[in-house]
Amino acid sequence: MKKIIVAITGGSGAIYGIRTLQLLRELGAETHLIISAWGSKTIQMETSYTVNEVKEMASVHYHSGNQAADVSSGSFKVDGMIVAPCSMKTLASITSGMASDLVSRSADVMLKEQKKLILLARETPLNLIHVRNMETAILSGAMIFPPVPAFYNNPESLDDVINHTVGRVLDQFGYDPEWLKRWGEPSKHSNT
């Protein structure tokens, strides 16, 4: 069983973190959830889920201010971490090494332990500070994974777009979701 940390921060796109939790549960993974204060606000503003409902989707959840949580230690066995969405504030905190909250501390642990750290960076347009922070994160071992929709899979709904992005993220952990349409596979639409 894979053990994955999922963090939801204040960038727009809280549904990416929620769908990640839902799909990881379906795939039998153990999930450790951290929701930042602004992540909680974004869940409330953008989705029909309550913060408590999202917490219940995880195997374990932690308060973002709890620096003594299991996930803040390099000795905690985990396969990696997904920050979905990753706000530019969170990205800056990770790349500066501040570890000022549990999200950035857990991300720091992933980097120092050389484990997967996937950041669904959410901002547009990007300024030079954002780009340099992304470069620093990549050079430090993280993967920047902006939730940019693909259209070769002919999405019919917003759910299709979200599921495709999350499915591609789960690829990075060795999952092969059967519902993920891959490049070169026959299309179910005749207008492609």
What strand order characterises the main sheet? 3-2-1-4-5-6
**Largest pleated sheet:** 6 strands, parallel
Order of helices and strands: EHEHHEEHHEHEH
The whole-angstrom Rg is 16 Å
Q: How many domains, as an integer?
A: 1
CATH architecture: 3-Layer(aba) Sandwich
CATH topology: Rossmann fold
Number of continuous helical runs: 7
Q: What percent strand?
A: 15-25%
> Briefly, what CATH class?
Alpha Beta
* Residues in helices, as a percent range: 40-55%
Residue stretches low in confidence (pLDDT < 50, at least 5 long) are: none
Mean of residue pLDDT values: 94
Give a concise summary.
With 192 residues, this protein is an alpha/beta fold. It has helices at residues 14-26, 37-46, 51-57, 88-96, 102-112, 128-140, 158-171; strands at residues 3-8, 30-35, 60-63, 80-86, 116-121, 143-144. A 6-stranded parallel sheet has the order 3-2-1-4-5-6, sandwiched between helices.
Structure in words:
This protein has 192 residues and is of the alpha/beta class. The chain has a single domain (3-171), classed as Flavin prenyltransferase-like (Rossmann fold). Helices cover 40% and strands 16% of the residues. The protein is built from seven helices and six strands; from the N terminus they run βαβααββααβαβα. It has helices spanning 14-26, 37-46, 51-57, 88-96, 102-112, 128-140, 158-171, and strands at residues 3-8, 30-35, 60-63, 80-86, 116-121, 143-144. A six-stranded parallel beta sheet has the order 3-2-1-4-5-6, sandwiched between helices. β5 (116-121), α6 and β6 form a beta-alpha-beta unit. α4 (88-96) packs across α6 (128-140). The protein is globular and about 45 Å long. It starts with a strand and ends in a 21-residue tail after the last helix.
